């Protein structure tokens, strides 16, 4: 693997830019090619077959561009396609899943020998929450914790349509999803969709202080670093990193929105 080759990062649209932000911060020597599939977003309400086909098209494009690894910066595409992609390509393919482990591990307090059961809401797309991959993840934690699955497809649409700054709309939408819970009794909310990471401040406004807001971006980037290092594929320390943003929607609106989210 050429360590100077770029890393391909993709998502159904603009959500994966939240992962690119983390990547650029933690691995500043890497060249990143980002592809957002906004023309086909959202993925979360499509069938697994459709999402798999779209994911293969994007990875094929990255391979033509000579990437050294691919990050699926999308929990939904990971659920639908990560195994098949890994079988088809021999470059590292890093996937994402809702960071449920981090949320449940908060119940392991060193001063207390017993696990304190955690009440966790996992906010993700309908497809992620329906797929077998998530069912298996839940199985590991739901005997010791109380886990609630909350599909939030409108949160994807709000980002894609550039309305993330509309405070009233966002808070109304969040209340629509979360008012059914007694939030004072919730220990954490897992942001199981990369679009939702952009809502962190809104979730803080919604939730009592004691509830944590957890996402998997940092862990994903850390995992990418470990994999590349083990293969001797980390960019040299004298290399200057860069981020190139591409999108299946060629409009200036999407290009401007992408730049704005990257800089946020
Ligand atoms: N950002 C994606 C995820 O992490 C999916 C959003 C969508 O297209 O539905 O799941």
TrEMBL record:
<feature type="binding site">
    <location>
        <begin position="11"/>
        <end position="12"/>
    </location>
    <ligand>
        <name>substrate</name>
    </ligand>
</feature>
<comment type="function">
    <text>Provides the (R)-glutamate required for cell wall biosynthesis.</text>
</comment>
<dbReference type="InterPro" id="IPR015942">
    <property type="entry name" value="Asp/Glu/hydantoin_racemase"/>
</dbReference>
<feature type="binding site">
    <location>
        <begin position="43"/>
        <end position="44"/>
    </location>
    <ligand>
        <name>substrate</name>
    </ligand>
</feature>
<comment type="pathway">
    <text>Cell wall biogenesis; peptidoglycan biosynthesis.</text>
</comment>
<dbReference type="InterPro" id="IPR018187">
    <property type="entry name" value="Asp/Glu_racemase_AS_1"/>
</dbReference>
<comment type="similarity">
    <text>Belongs to the aspartate/glutamate racemases family.</text>
</comment>
<keyword id="KW-0133">Cell shape</keyword>
<feature type="active site" description="Proton donor/acceptor">
    <location>
        <position position="74"/>
    </location>
</feature>
<feature type="binding site">
    <location>
        <begin position="194"/>
        <end position="195"/>
    </location>
    <ligand>
        <name>substrate</name>
    </ligand>
</feature>
<dbReference type="InterPro" id="IPR001920">
    <property type="entry name" value="Asp/Glu_race"/>
</dbReference>
<dbReference type="InterPro" id="IPR004391">
    <property type="entry name" value="Glu_race"/>
</dbReference>
<feature type="binding site">
    <location>
        <begin position="75"/>
        <end position="76"/>
    </location>
    <ligand>
        <name>substrate</name>
    </ligand>
</feature>
<keyword id="KW-0573">Peptidoglycan synthesis</keyword>
<dbReference type="GO" id="GO:0008881">
    <property type="term" value="F:glutamate racemase activity"/>
</dbReference>
<keyword id="KW-0961">Cell wall biogenesis/degradation</keyword>
<dbReference type="Pfam" id="PF01177">
    <property type="entry name" value="Asp_Glu_race"/>
</dbReference>
<keyword id="KW-0413">Isomerase</keyword>
<protein>
    <recommendedName>
        <fullName>Glutamate racemase</fullName>
        <ecNumber>5.1.1.3</ecNumber>
    </recommendedName>
</protein>
<feature type="active site" description="Proton donor/acceptor">
    <location>
        <position position="193"/>
    </location>
</feature>
